Automatic annotation (TrEMBL), chain B:
The keyword Oxidoreductase applies. It comes from Sphingomonas paeninsulae. The keyword Transit peptide does not apply. SUPFAM superfamilies: NAD(P)-binding Rossmann-fold domains. This is SDR family NAD(P)-dependent oxidoreductase. The lineage of its organism: Bacteria, Pseudomonadati, Pseudomonadota, Alphaproteobacteria, Sphingomonadales. InterPro entries: NAD(P)-bd_dom_sf, Sc_DH/Rdtase_CS, SDR_fam.
Length: 450, 253
């Protein structure tokens, strides 16, 4: 099989440029073969991670998109087995269609984009707006098969090779190559959702809305106006949604509806445009403080997927995303500090998200969600000042006993990873010595056995 | 799983594990067709069959064949025909991409490429055409290439085989017109597939198999005689064919 040096494999934030020796296996056997003969290898899903997790500069990447076959699906039990390169969008399009009673099967957990692969969703143990109800993606994985660089293949589950299973869920692609996975889909009585948007004027109002909503709504998250200061600090729009029994919704089309032209030469995200967008979004619902609608889940779950390659608006230098979670006692003050820093930074954040996590445990050693409040910021890359700003944010999170999400990160220090993820020592024992990534090198995550 | 009303078509795909064929097969599965998958790699075909079953294919049969063995082709067609009692759509999708400079030095490599890319599909098409003519219906489609439109120094062995196939299909169309059988000549440009994995695939002219498959699926349904896919290859090839020889010879592609 042919391999090619390429420099067009990027992650979503586009901040790291590098050459990779890329191979495109079209069967699990071929993928396992490449893993076994490569000194420095990593799997690449759809590159929907913002930071450097799916990149391996100067090394090999195995592009997973040729492994996109559904192996079996049981329409009675909702048990799906598929290759790791199948995208969540494909599963929705093929298996999550309304049945006679307008109910059907649905993916129990979806992140904010459906253009992520099953392998990528497991490797980052992704979460969605229903984290407080159903936890992370990994909780619904009943088994997976892993290819390791010593040529072995492992079936892993809660009962079989449980240690390797726990290390692989949220294992950032470092424990081996996921060949296939078995997932338990969720039975829903209606595929459509009713959604409500409610304006709130400050952080305290956010916390009370979240507390009230999490009990009755399956999906919750908020958008924050990152320029608001003082008494309006943390104002925003709270979105919540739940299923409508008996109401059907068809899966969205496999292609995004709007395509952007090729890379603009400069970033379109300037302090002014960010400010204008945030101000306009806030005013969007200024006539009514509450609006609701019912129907397709597309706008609620995947609002950003409507525009293909929207990450290009940040121009050639790309952007960072910073997502953290801070545990309850310190959460309110830490989030306020982070927002104050952001508002003061001139940089602003184009899209700012806030969500409360519940205490549904994640199965992975390195899974990101924990009980607390999670803030996500999008920050244009302007070089060293941006790095300094990210370091300030990181400091606040560490002081408050929180952690940073590796899937979104390209800047945190090895010390912060160790502080945020107490099980990292056990995790390192399971890292495959043949695997490497830009993230692993930055965070000093290398196999204990090397 | 997804229960779509069966369109009732029986579609036979020769070279079914190729990336483009696979993407077309998925569209057929969604439409509830019956599928006969013919190819060399058993394991790949079985994996594909399981996937297609979940995508809604009414019935699927897998059949092993080596298209380089031309003497065996009548038997291959016969077997495919008998799977589900006749074939409504036949798609020929196999090809190999020879290394042009190497094949110029090595007659055996040139021969192999000419056989798999021209002799074999032509004979296979002939077998299918006979049967379609007798049954008085059907659609015969073959994936050729824009490379067949003009001979170029960088790949004229491959291009000649594909160009020969253009003529063959043209004649077949003429001959089957009265019988009500359509013949579809599919000419893709650069597609990101296993066949082109050795090329540098950046640039705006590259298309995905899914994009090309959608065009093929529609061309088969409408019986369109010649399809350039993606569409922009049509004007490009008009221009390339029209270039005077003295200009053409100065180009390096
Ligand atoms: C618009 C948008 C919204 C998002 N919203 C959310 C959200 O709400 N919640 C959330 O949790 N995340 C979210 N994300 C992040 C995204 O869900 C994750 O980064 C996801 O892991 C991306 O999957 P991918 O297939 O693109 O994997 P990639 O980004 O290509 O890779 C991610 C990691 O998975 C590994 N990997 C991929 N395939 C395999 C395999 N077969 N075997 C082993 N390792 C593998 C890679 O090595 C890498 O470490 C969002 C991203 C975007 C762009």
């Amino acid at each position: 099989m042919s391999e090619l040096w390429r420099d067009d494999y990027l992650s979503w934030g586009r901040t790291v440029r590098a050459r990779h020796l890329v191979s495109n296996p079209t069967s699990q056997a071929l993928a396992a073969e490449i893993v076994a003969r490569s000194p420095s290898v990593l799997a690449y899903g759809c590159g929907r991670s913002y930071g450097d997790a799916p990149l391996n500069p100067g090394g090999r990447l195995i592009d997973c998109r040729g492994l996109d076959r559904i192996i079996s699906f049981d329409g009675q039990t909702g048990v799906l087995t598929c290759e790791a390169g199948v995208r969540l969008a494909d599963i929705l399009a093929i298996l999550c269609q309304p049945e006679a009673d307008n109910g059907g099967w649905f993916l129990p957990v979806v992140p904010g984009t459906r253009f992520a692969t099953v392998g990528g969703a497991i490797a980052n143990d992704v979460h969605g707006k229903n984290q407080h109800r159903l936890g992370t993606f990994g909780r619904h994985v009943s088994a997976l098969e892993l290819a390791r660089s010593d040529g072995t293949r492992w079936i892993c589950s809660q009962n079989e090779n449980a240690d390797l299973f726990a290390a692989t869920i949220g294992g950032i692609g470092l424990t081996g190559f996921i060949l296939n996975a078995t997932i338990q889909l969720q039975r829903v009585q209606g595929l459509a959702v009713e959604a409500e948007d409610i304006r709130f004027n400050n952080l305290d109002e956010f916390f009370s809305l979240a507390a009230e909503s999490d009990a009755y709504w399956d999906y919750t998250a908020a958008w924050i106006d990152s320029f608001a200061k003082g008494r309006s600090l943390g104002r925003g729009i709270f979105s919540r949604a739940r299923r409508i029994p008996g109401c059907a919704a068809w899966p969205p089309a496999l292609q995004p509806r709007i395509a952007l032209p090729p890379m603009p030469p400069i970033s379109l995200i300037r302090p002014f445009t960010v400010w204008a967008f945030n101000a306009a979004y806030w005013r969007k619902s200024s006539f009514r403080s509450r609006s609701s609608n019912t129907g397709s889940y597309e706008n609620v779950f995947f609002p950003l997927d409507a525009i293909a390659d929207w990450n290009r608006v940040y121009g050639p230098k790309g952007f960072f995303q910073f997502q953290c979670v801070v545990p309850p006692p310190a959460a309110r003050d830490a989030v306020a500090d982070l927002l104050r820093l952001t508002a003061r930074s001139v940089q602003g954040s184009f899209i700012t998200g806030l969500k409360t996590f519940g205490d549904v445990p994640s199965p992975g050693l390195m899974s990101f969600p924990m009980r607390g409040t999670s803030l996500a910021l999008d920050i244009p890359n302007r070089g060293p000042p941006t790095r300094r700003f990210l370091a300030q944010l990181e400091h606040v999170v560490m002081q408050a006993g929180g952690r940073i999400y590796p899937a979104k990160d390209a800047a945190m220090s090895a010390a912060s990873l160790r502080q945020g993820y107490p099980q990292v020592g056990t995790f390192i024992e399971h890292i495959d010595p043949g695997f490497s990534s830009a993230l692993a090198q930055r965070l000093a995550l290398t196999s204990a056995t090397r | 799983m997804v229960s779509s009303p069966s369109s009732g078509r029986t579609v036979a795909i020769f070279g079914a594990a190729s990336d483009i064929a696979m993407a077309v097969a998925r569209l057929c599965a969604q439409a509830g067709d019956l599928l006969v998958l013919v190819g060399r790699d058993d394991a790949a075909l079985s994996a594909l069959a399981a996937d297609l079953a979940e995508r809604g294919a009414a019935r699927i049969a897998v059949q092993k064949a080596d298209f380089g063995q031309v003497a065996a082709l009548p038997g291959v067609v016969q077997a495919a025909w008998e799977r589900f009692d006749g074939i409504d759509v036949a798609l020929i999708a196999y090809a190999i991409q020879p290394d042009q400079p190497a094949a110029e030095q090595n007659p055996a490599a040139a021969e192999a490429a000419l056989i798999v890319n021209f002799v074999s599909p032509a004979l296979l098409l002939g077998e299918i055409a006979r049967r379609c003519k007798a049954q008085g219906s059907g659609t015969i489609a073959a994936i050729t290439s824009v490379a067949g439109d003009r001979g170029r120094k960088s790949n004229y062995i491959y291009g000649a085989a594909k160009g020969g196939l253009h003529r063959f299909l043209e004649g077949l169309r003429h001959s089957l017109h009265a019988a009500g059988v359509s013949v579809v000549d599919i000419r893709p440009g650069f597609v990101v597939t296993k066949l082109t994995a050795h090329l540098d695939r950046r640039g705006v002219l590259w298309a995905t198999p899914d994009r090309v498959a959608k065009d093929i699926f529609e061309a088969i349904a409408s019986g369109r005689p010649v399809l350039y896919t993606p569409w922009f290859w049509q004007p490009i090839m008009v221009a390339v064919r029209g270039l005077p020889r003295w200009v053409f010879h100065r180009t390096s592609f």
